[in-house]
Amino acid sequence: MNLRAQLGDQVMVFTYLFIMVMVAGSIVGGVVLFYGTEIDFRPTEVQLLTRAVDHCLTLDTFNWDKAQNDSSYFFTVCNLNKSALESHTNQLKVCVNSKGCISEPHPLIAVGSDFLFCGLSGVQANEKLPRCLVSSLVISGKNVQIIASSNQKATQGVA
Fold it and tell me: In this structure, are 14 and 56 located in the same domain?
């Protein structure tokens, strides 16, 4: 009796099933990524914007008098694009020596107009409202408040 090489056909069944499971898993993974839920980058985006402004204002070369007279100086020195901030539903407000930056009529910089929601207590619980970050710091004897907000949500899928 010759029993050699009769097990070969049965071994290939396991290889075939393994390949089919990999293909099915790839298809399921692709569908989940394509039709997936929204990704909320708003808190991260607000933190990055606040950190960039904070870093720019703490530079020794930042001229406060020039920034108060010319808003384009602030965006040039801080390497921020004002039109990009406006078009991506971001808001930024920087106040110097202000008692309440949210309602300050004459801030150093203001991109966007409605910052009242940043002062509300339930903003973080409501998913539909933009994410806000209010930061206070003292630079060169000046009390500086930075308010940044973002309402940009990214979705996975076809743009």
Answer: no
Task: List, in order, residues 6 or more apart from 84 with CB less than 8 Å away.
Answer: none
* Residues 99, 1: Cα–Cα separation, whole Å: 98
If you average pLDDT over each of 1-15, 21-35, 118-132, which comes out highest? 21-35
- Give the domain extent around 70: 40-155
The mean pLDDT of the chain is 81
Is 73 found in the same domain as 20?
Answer: no
Q: How far apart are CA 122 and CA 24, in angstroms?
A: 44
Stated pTM of the model: 0.68
Rounded-to-integer distance, Cα 104 and Cα 94, Å: 10
pLDDT of 20 reads 96
